[in-house]
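Worked example 4.2. Below are the chains of a multi-component assembly; read each line carefully before continuing.
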Amino acid sequence: MPSENGTPQPVNMPGDALMAMRDVTMRFGSRTVIDSLDLNVTAGEKLAIIGPSGSGKTTILRLAMGLERPTGGWIRIDGRYLWHVQRNEALVPAGDRQARRARRAVGMVFQQFNLFPHMTALQNVTEPLVHVLRMRRNEAHERANDLLSRVGLATHLEHRPAQLSGGQQQRVAIARSLALRPKLMLFDEVTSALDPELVGEVLNVIRDLAHTTSMAMMIVTHEITFAADIADRVIMFDQGRIVEEGEPKVVLREPQSQRTKQFLKAILER
Amino acid sequence: MAGRRSYGAAAATISGAMTLEWDWGFALQTLPTLLRGLVFTLEATFYGSLLAFTLGLVWALARLAEVPVASQLIRLWVEFIRGTPLLIQLYFLFFIFPTYGVTLPALETGVIGLGLYYSAYASEVYRAGIEGVPRGQWEASLALGLPLHRVWGRIVLPQAMRFAIPVLGNFVISMFKESAILSTISVLELIGQANIIGAETARYVEPLTMAALIFLIISYPAARLLRLLEARTGAV
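Applying the procedure described above to all two chains together yields the following structure tokens:
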């Protein structure tokens, strides 16, 4: 756990941020879900985002993935603007094609897995390899095989999602996102839809990834112990704004803000 | 005409007094002619379905694409087809279009008529199927960076089809039976043939009953088979 063995952690460095959001606002109708957010994630950083339901945490991830177009502000990923192009020092709004390119560096795991139900576990993973990376089939097969073994599903390659437990499905979804080797992985409450006894197996896979890869991660979760274990930095988010941020041992153990204290108390008493 | 001669005997025995007594011999004699009609019925159903399912997908995709104007026009077109009787559409194709110089043989006209008519309904089935694919499937595809044509071809349409195929299968059976309407534009399909035999022999009971039986013998097992298929795909 990097934060506990004393390794210095990179703090906000806008210049070399892997993912940067500036003054990002997201409104749905008259509701402001994200309120001029500034956020950086550096390469390799593990960022946990906590906060009550409806606080806008999931929207941050959806914005980072490019599933939503922000109402205001800009987002840059791995040197590419998601919804803008740079022209003579100015940012000009751009369309889907630009977003498509920028998304390449990002992968996402969803609360509801979103596996392709008509394909086997193996096909779910080879699909992007063959049709996005244009890998040859046997090569894709090999990589998919490795990834599924890594998440403990070597014996379930030919199973369809409906034949797998929720935990297994979520692990396939993780393998599928890993297949494209993203620099930033987004985990959106990935255990919320699972039966309690299946939560552990999924968290273990993510914990293992966090400790063994140099991939940056943004993790929206209600699992406080898990967040404390893997995160380099924790953000407490409420009503579209960052309430508090810092090292996990501070934010999760000795929070400064009254709102964070309240929230953690409510979670722990659940 | 060969037909007239072969029914001569049966017709003679009943000449004068109309009887409703069932004549097995006569009934069996109608079979070869009726089966010739069945070939047209099956042809009309097969090509009509092919046309309906292809055009239906085109209408559905065009509407979902939300191309300004074009999508609205197609919606109007679909509503027009759904809102008028098939019979009138056939009359337009067969009797009115030729006066503007568009003339097609009866069977082809029938296939186009059936195909257009059912395409309007098929487009609704496709649309329901496509809209029934969860949002998450689109989002996962987007997150993985799958190109749009792959998302449609490999993710969305296969799932939509799973819903659409049993319904479209029912359309085939329904079209098979409704193709009888093509007899009104002189296609000698099953009912058309039965009518001719009736007119020539003044006996309608046997040819019409036999025609009905042929319809039943084909449509009933087809419907059962479809139900089985539905139960199977539903379970997986």
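Take a moment to check your reading of the output against the notes. Residues 1-5 of chain B have pLDDT under 50 and may be disordered. Residues 106 and 187 of chain B are 6 Å apart (CA to CA).
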